[in-house]
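Re: export button greyed out
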Amino acid sequence: MLEVEDLVAAYGPVRAVDGVSLSVPAGSITAVLGANGAGKSSLLRAVSGIMRPRSGRVRFCGEDITRQGAEDIVRRGLAHVPEGGGVIQELTVEENLRLGSLARCSRAERPKALKDVFDLFPRLEQHRKLGASSLSGGERQMLSIGRALMGRPKMLLLDEPSLGLAPLLASRIMGVIAELRQKTELTVLLVEQNAKSALRVADRGVVLGVGRVVAEDDSAKLAADDKLRHAYLGF
Amino acid sequence: MTRFIDLTLNGISNGAIYAAVALAFVLIWRATRVVNFAAGGMLMITTFVASSVISSSGSYWLGFFVALAAGLLLGAVVERLLIRRVEGGPPLNAVIVTIGLLILFEAIAGMIWSNTPRSFPPAFSIKGYTVGSHTYLFGPFDVFTVLAVVGMATALLVLFRLTDLGLMMRASAFEPVVARLQGVRVGNMLTLGWALASMAGSLAGLLIGPQVFVGPNNFDPVAIFGFTAAVLGGLDSPLGALVGGLILGLSLSYVSGYAGASLVTLAALAILVAVLMVRPSGLFTSARARRI
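Workaround output, generated via the alternate export path:
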């Protein structure tokens, strides 16, 4: 579904993503792992169009989206939940969710999309009229994932959905991701620093080290590789 | 007592106009985090356009609506051609561009329409209503002024709060990158924000024109009053702009009536300085810290 070929993305002279190639099959959950500064977030930013890649190619559903802007890429059904969620605090919970549906849902489809998200995250329904700034960290993460789902995406790019959450909440979020894939055949590219919990839900893992792919394999095999675990995954 | 009522009514009517100018500042600040010092110049240009259309066609309302449309267009063009290039850069760059634009507009207006101020017709009679033996300083045109500003503010409120377009505009103003990730064409939203702001300014120009006459520099005080009202309300809040405009209109009216008209500009500046010293975030601003 997503193919990344020799992608390079840089902040000035610093190449955060330095020739990354990977492919994400439809319906899979692929984890991108690696330490701080390995280029995981930059990879997502370059794929979703927030950051303009310097070279290389990104193909989504067979079409080249390398040079497209973020607003066009999300319209194709590739939704990016940025690090920290990117909840807009000045808007209410419901307005945040509505925003996610505007570009891809017709008016008639919206109530159904909203209901689906509320079924997945009942907390959001309780707080729908509240300002998003009053939500807790975990609720914000749910809101940002819910907002991405409002556009009925084909694929989700999730940037550290468990960052800063208590372990219990973090594993709940991971559970939701697994549940989503089962129910909707959503394809997910999941960036995580917590490699252990990410490999538990992912089918495949890609390990980045300073902007390059150092390993790519089935989750079980990556988790079993002691050398890799100690050097890159920290568990 | 009648004097007090007169000054209050006059303050409400002028306050409505300041509120419209304040809205022009606030909408632009919210959309692009730029203080548009060219606002006075832009509404001056559109009022000149109205003046020309009225004198050549003979229809006040044609001129009125052409001026509003010209305001929309002028705001959009200024944002696309000039402000787009300095957005996201150091704030001072944008400030210098808008000040340069003000000087440019005033020079161009002088060249096209001459520097001699000309009179501008009101939509309705400016003669005050007479109750008993007293003729109040408040007539049909003042009623129109208040209604026009309230109507425009209500329309903007409905746009922002109840429509998809308004939601996209607010999202673009608060979190442009996040908005892009939801598929919002942020650039277009910012252009629209400038266009609407400029239209609010145009309305103010049409309403204040009969009082100050139309000349290249005649709207400078109104721009300063509007800016003061915007700061008073907290540059981020459209509601604050309205309340700020009203407070300033009333204050200046009382100062003018009880202390002398020559003190009005000074009083406005004193209020501006006092607000910046005592409550720099304004009366109605949201929690987020301000950069100016």
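The first helix of chain B runs from residue 2 to 32. The button fix ships in the next patch.
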